[in-house]
Amino acid sequence: MAKMVELVAEKHVEYIVSVEKKKDAFESVVMEHLRMNGAYWGLTTLDLLGKLQVVDQDEVIPWVIQCQHESGGFGGNIGHDPHILYTLSAVQILALFDKLHILDVAAVTNYIVGLQNEDGSFSGDMWGEVDTRFSYIAICCLSLLHQLDKIDVEKAVNYIVRCKNLDGGFGCNPGGESHAGQIFCCVGALAITGCLHHVDKDLLGWWLCERQVKSGGLNGRPEKLPDVCYSWWVLSSLIMIDRVHWIDKEKLANFILDCQDVEKGGISDRPDDAVDIYHTYFGVAGLSHLQYPGVKAIDPAYALPVDVVNRILIGS
Hints:
The protein has 316 residues and is mainly alpha-helical. It has one domain: Glycosyltransferase, CATH 1.50.10. The chain contains 14 helices and no strands. Helix 3 packs parallel to helix 13 (277-289) and helix 5 runs parallel beside helix 7. The chain is globular, with a radius of gyration of 19 Å. The model has no long low-confidence stretch (mean pLDDT 94).
């Protein structure tokens, strides 16, 4: 049997730090509007590798706070419009650094509460796009802030249940095609609200396990190519419904490790493609779920290291 490639953790740390420094590079310009998400992906990866201290939090924290709007929501960067996507990333970054106490929690809460619609769904921002991703984000964000009781949780859960399909999966809205990313959002929201009884765990578990292809990687829908990011979306969902033993973990770990740039660091969507911060995070997070040595445990519902979630929710 061929020797398994090792995780080049130090190279990944160097890669993440270098991405943050290259402000004028093409990738940075393209990512500028969602820098908050990029910061969350990079910083969480560093924490999972036990290296969060390499970042100067006195630079990061003021920048995060500057991205907050009068509405309470956060933009993807300074001067950009607020959106629920960036708001969760901002809260998660502050959580990593144990700085949630500096946040205007009431303003953030009011912003998210204002995005809940009459049918229980959530819009992403003032323009009104509705998606189960936003339901998950609202529930995750408010739970981390101990403000979940401020929305109509029952209506929110009922809307998510309406997005369940005959194959056991979930879509972005009622009738939408089942997709591994949306399944994570719906299962995560149901897990946080204590409503996983709405999930047909065997049926959904079967659908999710069918996402593993010959290479060991996972795809997001039938007939699609495998992609490292589904190591997170699919694995997290399987863990939350207690069916993770239904896939070949060793083959998946090998697939993720084969997507590394072992010389310059970073992880790509599939072997030999260009690396990026997004897939680096999801690759390392996937290895965390596979209990890879040297990678901290990550919470499958909150997408933060387990010790961070315990500190916030249990105070330990």
